Amino acid sequence: MNISVEEMDGGITRVVLDGRLDIAGAAEVDLKMNIIAGSAKLLLIDLKDVAFLGSMGLRSIVVPAKNVNRRGGKTALFAPQPMVEEVIKASNIDQIIPIYHDLDAAVQALR
Amino acid sequence: MLGSLSMEREEQLTLCSRLEDLVLVTPWVDRVVADLGLPVNQRFIIDLCLEESISNVVRHGLANDCNHSVVVRSILHEADGAQELHFVIEDDAPHFNPLAAPVAQIKAAPASIEEIAEGGRGIGLLRKYAGTLRYEALPAGNRLTIGFTLGSLS
C-alpha cells in the first residue's frame, strides 16, 4: 500500500492511496494518515487506485476524517472504484464524508 | 441417455492465528480461482468475506495467538455446467456464531461524523455480501462455510 501527499491550492491536502486497503494495507497507512489528519484542515482522500477496501480500511478513512472534523475541517473522498464505493455506501459513510468523481467538484465542496 | 456430470475440487490453506498471516489468503485464492474467470466484483466479494471472517476469528476468537491455527478449505463443485465455490473456515476458538451475533447498527442517515462508528462493520459486511453462510459449532471450535454461486454476485 502506497501513500503520497500533495498540497493543493486552497489549503487542500490530497492524500493519494494506491493498493489494497485490507488489514495489511490499513496497518501500513494508518499512522501516516493520522499524522496528516492532525494538521490538515481540508482533506481529500484519493481512492482511485485503491483496488480493495474492507472494514479495517473503512476505519482508516473514518478515523482521520473525524480528527479533521474535530478541528473544524472537512474531508471528501475522490474517485473510488465501483466495489470500493459500494462498500463505503453500504456503511453510509458517504452520507457524511461525500464521494466525488469530479476533481473540481471535490475541490469546490471542500473550500 | 447421458448421466449428470459432477466434479469437486478441494484445496486447503492453514494459517497461524495472527493478523500478519492474512496476507497469505489473497494469493491462495488467486490460485484457487485462477482458471474460473471470475468477474472483478465477485473476486472482490470473496476477498472481503474471507478477510472479515478470518480476521474476526484471529482477533476476537484466538486473540492473535499463533499457537492456534485457522484452516481454510476451498471446495469447488461443478454439476451440469453450474459452479459453486465454498470456503470452509475452521478454528479452535470458543464458540461464536457470526450469523447470530449482534452487529453494529449502521445509521441510515447519520447526523454527524461523530455518529459514524470507527469499527465493528466486519460481520455486517460478511452477512451482506456472502452468497450463503452456514455456521456449525464443533466440539472444540467453529466451522463457518461461505458459499458463492459463480457468475452471480450473491
TrEMBL record, chain A:
NCBIfam families listed in its UniProt record: ant_ant_sig
Pfam family, one: STAS
STAS domain: residues covered: 11-110
InterPro entries reported for this sequence: Anti-sigma_ant (IPR003658), STAS_dom (IPR002645), STAS_dom_sf (IPR036513)
Family designation: Belongs to the anti-sigma-factor antagonist family.
PROSITE patterns assigned: STAS
The name this protein goes by in its record: Anti-sigma factor antagonist
Superkingdom of this protein's organism: Bacteria
Organism: Acidicapsa dinghuensis
Lineage, opening ranks: Bacteria, Pseudomonadati, Acidobacteriota, Terriglobia, Terriglobales
UniProtKB/TrEMBL annotation, chain B:
The UniProt record lists the keyword ATP-binding: yes
Sorted UniProt keywords: ATP-binding, Nucleotide-binding
Entry keyword Nucleotide-binding: yes
Listed Pfam families: HATPase_c_2 (PF13581)
Signal sequence interval, chain numbering: none
Transmembrane segments: none
InterPro entries (alphabetical): HATPase_C_sf (IPR036890), HATPase_dom (IPR003594)
CDD domains according to UniProt: HATPase_RsbW-like
GO MF terms, alphabetically ordered: ATP binding
Name listed for the protein in its UniProt record: ATP-binding protein
Lineage: Bacteria, Pseudomonadati, Acidobacteriota, Terriglobia, Terriglobales
